[in-house]
Design goal:
Elements (H helix, E strand, L loop, with lengths): L5 E5 L4 H12 L3 E6 L2 H13 L3 E6 L5 H14 L5 E4 L15 H29 L4 E5 L12 H21 L5 E7 L5 H7 L6 H8 L9 H12 L10 E4 L7
Parallel strand pairs: 1-2, 1-4, 2-3, 4-5, 5-6, 6-7
Helix pairs in contact: 1-2, 1-8, 3-4, 4-5
Bound molecules: nicotinamide-adenine-dinucleotide.
């Protein structure tokens, strides 16, 4: 790669986003490491720079249009156009069964996981269309994008929405050469997952058996990063509107 092409990873201060940003930078790209947690984003940038990569930390709240607009204005000021983006920021706090639905909690989860992806897509598509870059966008879904689980109504609804947004963006981006795809991870060892396991009475073996897919293990964040990397690289040049499932075979069990 002759010049460092610029892109954005949201939620890159932790977990999967950090790993995606590290791999993208190691392929020679410049990464805007965007997160609402600036310290986390700066930690990712330090890791990238320690291996000779190029990145900058930016604070963003994907639920706020002003904040998202400011992020992409920053990218624009860098002057090379937006070549790729990964919409990864997400939350998975405790959720409710529908009979106990707490609308405020539902709105909070939808605001980050669905509305936040839509908002980022708005500014990414605008930037790529106006710069004439045949951009690549990857949205991060979940196995909850295609299989519901009881007691997680908001998270499931938000992640089903990510596939709908991906396919709509792919339809609208196609004429501009913009490819938009979705990666759906199974359970990966990240701070989000570890936080949800805290205090659980379920044994590790039973947990892995329940969520680990046919490969019988929890995934590692770099295994998701590899799938994302393929979709933002030229190697996937004829792939758009696709959902790539990286779940150790959970879907087919
Ligand atoms: N870890 C898994 O097993 C798993 C499985 C399927 C899908 N996912 C999805 O992968 C993505 C990343 O999850 P993770 O496990 O790495 O979680 P994580 O909690 O480790 O990281 C999420 C990051 O998003 C950031 N973030 C949250 N809200 C934000 C906001 N409003 N604006 C900007 N940044 C915000 C957080 O600060 C954090 O750095 C999420 O979309 C999640 O739903 C994770």
């Amino acid at each position: 790669m002759s010049e460092r092409v610029t892109g954005v990873v949201t939620g890159a201060g932790s977990g999967l986003g950090r790993e995606i940003a590290l791999l993208a930078a190691s392929a020679g790209r410049h990464v805007f490491v965007a997160d609402r947690d600036l310290a986390g984003a700066e930690g990712t940038v330090r890791l990238i720079e320690s291996t000779g990569g190029s990145a900058q930390a930016v604070i963003v709240d994907v639920t706020s249009e002003d904040s998202v607009a400011a992020l992409f204005a920053d990218v624009d000021r860098r002057g090379r156009g937006l070549a790729w983006a990964v919409n990864n920021a997400g939350i998975h706090p405790d959720d409710d069964r529908l009979a106990d639905l707490d609308l405020a909690a539902f709105d909070r989860i939808m605001a980050v996981n669905a509305r936040g992806v839509a908002l980022c897509l708005k500014y990414e598509m605008r930037a790529m269309q106006s710069a004439g870059t045949a951009g690549r966008i990857v949205n991060i879904g979940s196995t909850r994008s295609f299989r519901a689980i009881s007691g997680s109504a908001a998270y499931v609804a938000s992640k089903f929405a990510v596939i709908g947004l991906t396919e709509t963006a792919a339809l609208e981006g196609g004429p501009y050469g913009i490819r938009v795809n979705c990666v759906c991870p199974g359970v990966m060892s990240t701070p989000m997952v570890r936080a949800r396991r805290e205090g659980s009475v379920e044994s590790e073996a039973a947990y892995v058996d329940r969520v680990g897919g046919v490969l019988g293990r929890i995934g590692s964040p770099d295994e998701v990063a590899e799938a994302v990397e393929w979709l933002i690289s030229d190697a996937s040049s004829y792939v758009t509107g696709h959902t790539l499932v990286a779940d150790g075979g959970y879907r087919i069990r």
